[in-house]
Design goal:
The protein has helices at 3-35, 48-83, 91-105, 107-115, 124-150, 152-155, 159-165, 168-171, 174-190, 195-220, 231-235, and strands at residues 242-246, 252-256. The chain is mostly helical and 257 residues long. It has two domains: 3-220, no CATH class; 224-257, no CATH class. Helix 1 (3-35) runs antiparallel to helix 2 (48-83), helix 4 packs antiparallel against helix 5 (124-150) and helix 5 runs parallel beside helix 10.
Length: 257
């Protein structure tokens, strides 16, 4: 085995370590979050009515966990897609990836505000913290995507498709929109606004942001179809088939039908 082959094997091994480490962080975060969603010990010997009350008491926590599981799952799926183009790495890439994983690891901390509060929807600091961490994770993931695209000739394979596959024409706007959302959070904290009003100020722009992203996807990628998992696709006879869609510039975009 020559030196070039040894270097190639070593690089592939190191890339695999980076990916496995990232996956482990995601898995541990999700596991930690569910540990706080449990019935109290007294419910084990409680009557049916008491058990029902105990379940209703933890229901908001279960909903919060489910929402966070969905958010983290989406982040992991995009992280998986980003790293599917990776053929090499450097210190800057590892640093940005660690920064992204750090922001994701803050989700259990954000949920702890809600889990430990008897008045979940009125606990304004929980709203501020959860919203800020969500903005931070999206922003750091955008940094990771942008760095790969900027250095795609060095770090990535299949460079002709990476920008369209990662929807960079849309996601790059996060550099400008997310700081605006962060300023809104800072304003609500500074003026100590009503908790319900804070909810609208923090999460309202997030809903608007999602709508704008969907509209922009229709404009920039009219033929792009996002993978959708339904009960029919999970238990139906037909399997998803890979195909290539094209955006308005004629660039191929791999997706599923």
């Amino acid at each position: 085995m020559n030196i070039d082959d040894e270097n190639e094997i070593r690089r592939e091994f190191q890339l695999e370590r980076i990916i496995l480490f990232s996956d482990a962080v995601f898995a541990i975060i999700i596991t930690i979050m569910i540990l706080d969603v449990k019935l109290p010990e007294v419910a084990r010997y409680a009557s049916e009515l008491e058990a029902k009350k105990a379940f209703l008491h933890i229901l908001p926590k279960l909903i919060g966990y489910s929402v966070s599981f969905y958010a983290i799952g989406r982040l992991w799926m995009l992280h998986l897609r980003i790293f599917s183009f990776l053929k090499d790495y450097n210190l800057q890439l590892i640093t940005i990836n660690l920064l992204f994983l750090f922001s994701v690891s803050l989700y259990p901390f954000a949920l702890s505000f809600f889990f430990n509060s008897s008045q979940i929807m009125q606990y304004s600091w929980g709203i501020y913290t959860y919203g800020s961490i969500t903005f931070l994770t999206i922003f750091t993931q955008t940094m990771l995507t942008g760095y790969l695209i900027k250095n795609k000739d060095i770090l990535c394979s299949n460079t002709a498709k990476i920008e369209n596959a990662l929807l960079w024409k849309i996601n790059r706007f996060d550099y400008f929109l997310l700081p605006v959302f962060a300023i809104l959070v800072a304003v609500t904290i500074y003026f100590n606004l009503n908790p319900k009003l804070s909810l609208y100020i923090v999460f309202g722009p997030m809903v608007l942001y999602s709508i704008v992203i969907k509209i922009m996807r229709l404009i920039y990628y009219p033929d792009y179809r996002k993978d959708k998992v339904t009960l029919l696709s999970l238990f139906g006879r037909s399997k998803p088939v890979l195909y290539e869609a094209k955006d308005k510039h004629g660039q191929s975009v791999e997706t599923r039908k």
